[in-house]
Design a protein that fits this description.
This protein has 138 residues and is mainly α. The protein is 83% helix and 0% strand. The protein is elongated.
Amino acid sequence: MKKIIFPLCASIYMLSATPAFAGPKMDKRHAYVLKNLELDKKTEAAISPVLMQYLQDKKEANKKYDDLKDKYKSAEKAGTLTNAQATELLNAKFERDAKELAVKKRYYTEFLKILKPKTVWYVFDLSNDKKEKIDGQD
């Protein structure tokens, strides 16, 4: 019975730790970070669900600002951004920066349970790489 329950519980945990709505962009970023960290299989298996949740939480922290940036993209390009729109964008950006910092601080302690501080630094650094750099790593 124990031989069945443990793998079943482990599978359920792994599925619950990886958001179903992560999407291909997030999956690509996740794979890119793991590939460039060059971890052993055991450590990679331990950090993978935590990393995916970190990326999801970071994306959620950026959502409001990203939505506003998309909303005002044409006005920004045309040079017709109003003062009110600029203020709204700046306030959203400040809020995003604060939320993102809180996410990083929270996951810093989670990552330290599995990784050394130097490797945690690389996790944060690699997860911020530009999309073009990630796409070039196929």
